[in-house]
């Protein structure tokens, strides 16, 4: 028998808010975190806007020592540490100050591109023959596992401490990997999440691909339009999300608050076959990932009340909706309510899954569906598949028992997790 896995803590650093309370308010009110950046204009970017969390030096000092902040350039590490520490504290867990590690607790915290600014600084110093000026933190800021290493040392975790990387699927995959470790009895709790750096050296490649909107530099809050007939590309973003997963009996024993339960999940790849490519999904694989997640969760398609989709505000949004209708065998009025966070935050790349998971769990816990921002005119290919009232434009109260969260990433990789509202009376 697999052990039950519940979510007992969360933290978030999003372009539109930092911290759970502010984030919940932001997604309920449709607050945008997308802004214009003069730096991108000076560098001749076509898309000169993005989603970047606003973090003060005072806030950083609450999480890092002066020594840790010295030469710390990797924005993803800053975001990830804040989100991770907040999630740990939200779960009412104490930071391990003992000499011995906490062998029951581990970390799987993913990223995509980490420490780009530090890489740039290092390249210049090395080329100028000034290697000794690199500092002692250049390696840990630029290695992919830098974020899990920082958090592992801060929290004193002694179970598996590692980093995963699967493009836009990273955060959702991290949760699935952490949940499986607990289900199999290899850990009592896992801090999971993901982070992403910001800035021109991360976003430049996407601008070169011409997949970012370039006509909203004067109106950034309107640029990201998931499921809209007027969608012209995704807005790049950054940040971090974190969740504490815990074995159910362990959580109950210590009297932890429980946000939701992880019922099941699936990860797969389309193999870049059957229409799948480095940047496009194999639709058959997407549908299989959805159905396998339901099978793992032991639920039927008609039990899903809501979907938080990947839905990036590109021409592929209608394809994603079609995949959901085929996998669930539900269409028109029978389709679940669906939403996308990216209208408010942009596409936070490797951080997107974890930030959106936090938003999904908040919806389950507090029984609401946040509105689809900038979706005044739904794409006609989507309205042919599902009813418009399944795509709420404003936040609504809704009874949600089961929610499906999906992330699909470059490289033709997919991740779907099934979450359930926690009810003490039925536990």
Structure description:
- This protein is of the alpha/beta class.
- It folds into two domains: 5-253, Peroxisomal Thiolase, Chain A, domain 1, CATH 3.40.47.10; 264-420, Peroxisomal Thiolase, Chain A, domain 1, CATH 3.40.47.10.
- It is built from 16 helices and 15 strands.
- It has helices spanning 20-29, 38-42, 57-60, 66-69, 75-90, 116-127, 138-142, 146-155, 170-183, 200-208, 248-253, 283-297, 317-328, 342-345, 352-366, 380-383; strands at 5-14, 17-18, 34-36, 49-51, 105-111, 161-162, 189-196, 239-247, 260-269, 306-308, 337-339, 368-369, 396-397, 402-409, 413-421.
- The strands form three sheets. Strands 1, 2, 5, 6, 7, 8, 9, 10, 11, 14 and 15 form an eleven-stranded mixed sheet that branches. A two-stranded antiparallel ribbon has the order 3-4. A two-stranded antiparallel ribbon has the order 12-13.
- α5 runs parallel beside α8 and α12 (283-297) packs across α13.
- It is globular and about 65 Å long.
- The mean pLDDT is 96.
- Its EC number is 2.3.1.41.
- It catalyses: (3Z)-decenoyl-[ACP] + malonyl-[ACP] + H(+) = 3-oxo-(5Z)-dodecenoyl-[ACP] + holo-[ACP] + CO2; a fatty acyl-[ACP] + malonyl-[ACP] + H(+) = a 3-oxoacyl-[ACP] + holo-[ACP] + CO2.
CATH class of the largest domain: Alpha Beta
Q: Enumerate the spans where pLDDT stays under 50 for 5 or more consecutive residues.
A: none
Query: Major sheet, described briefly?
Result: 11 strands, mixed
Beta-strand percent range: 15-25%
Work out the radius of gyration: 20 Å
Q: In total, how many domains does the architecture comprise?
A: 2
- Separate helix tally: 16
- Quantity of strands, as a count: 15
Mean pLDDT rating? 96
For the terminal residues, how far apart are their CA atoms? 17 Å
Which fold name fills CATH's third level, the topology of the largest domain?
Peroxisomal Thiolase, Chain A, domain 1
Structural class: alpha/beta
CATH superfamily of the largest domain: Thiolase/Chalcone synthase
Helix content: 25-40%
Shape: globular
CATH architecture of the largest domain: 3-Layer(aba) Sandwich
């Amino acid at each position: 028998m697999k052990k039950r896995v519940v979510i007992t803590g969360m933290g978030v650093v999003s372009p539109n808010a930092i911290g759970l309370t502010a984030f919940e308010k932001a997604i309920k009110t449709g607050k945008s975190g997308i802004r214009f950046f003069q730096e991108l204009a000076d560098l001749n970017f076509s898309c000169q806007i993005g989603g970047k969390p606003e973090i003060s030096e005072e806030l950083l000092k609450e999480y890092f020592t002066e020594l840790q902040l010295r030469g710390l350039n990797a924005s993803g590490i800053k975001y990830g540490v804040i989100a991770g520490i907040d999630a740990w504290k939200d779960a009412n867990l104490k930071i391990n100050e003992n000499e011995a590690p906490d062998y029951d607790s581990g970390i799987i915290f993913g990223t995509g591109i980490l420490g780009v600014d530090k890489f740039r600084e290092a390249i210049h110093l090395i080329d100028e023959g000034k290697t000794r000026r690199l500092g002692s933190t250049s390696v840990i800021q630029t290695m992919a596992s830098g974020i899990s290493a920082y958090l592992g040392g801060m929290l004193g975790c002694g179970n598996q401490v590692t980093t995963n990387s699967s493009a836009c699927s990273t955060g959702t995959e991290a949760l699935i990997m952490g949940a499986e470790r607990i289900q199999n009895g290899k850990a009592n709790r896992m801090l999971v999440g993901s982070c992403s750096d910001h800035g021109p050296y991360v976003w430049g490649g996407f601008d070169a691909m011409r997949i970012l909107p370039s006509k909203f530099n004067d109106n950034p809050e309107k640029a990201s339009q998931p499921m809209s007939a007027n969608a012209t590309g995704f807005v790049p973003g950054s940040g971090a999300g974190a969740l504490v997963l815990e074995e159910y009996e362990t959580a109950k024993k210590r009297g932890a608050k429980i946000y939701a339960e992880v019922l099941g999940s699936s990860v797969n790849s389309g193999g870049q076959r059957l229409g799948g490519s480095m940047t496009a999904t194999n639709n058959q694989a997407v549908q299989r990932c959805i159905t396998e997640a339901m099978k793992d969760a032991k639920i039927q398609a008609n039990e899903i009340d809501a979907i938080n989709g990947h839905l990036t505000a590109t021409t592929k949004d209608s394809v994603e909706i079609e995949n959901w209708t085929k996998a669930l065998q539900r269409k028109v009025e029978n389709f679940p309510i669906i939403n996308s966070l990216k209208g408010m935050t942009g596409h936070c790349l490797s951080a997107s899954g974890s930030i959106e998971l936090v938003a999904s769990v908040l919806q389950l816990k507090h029984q609401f569906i946040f509105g689809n921002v900038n979706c005044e005119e739904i794409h006609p290919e989507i309205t042919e598949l599902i009813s418009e009232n399944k795509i709420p434009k404003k936040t609504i109260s809704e009874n949600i028992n089961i929610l499906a969260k999906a992330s699909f990433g470059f490289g033709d990789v997919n991740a779907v997790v099934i979450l359930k509202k926690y009810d003490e009376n039925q536990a």
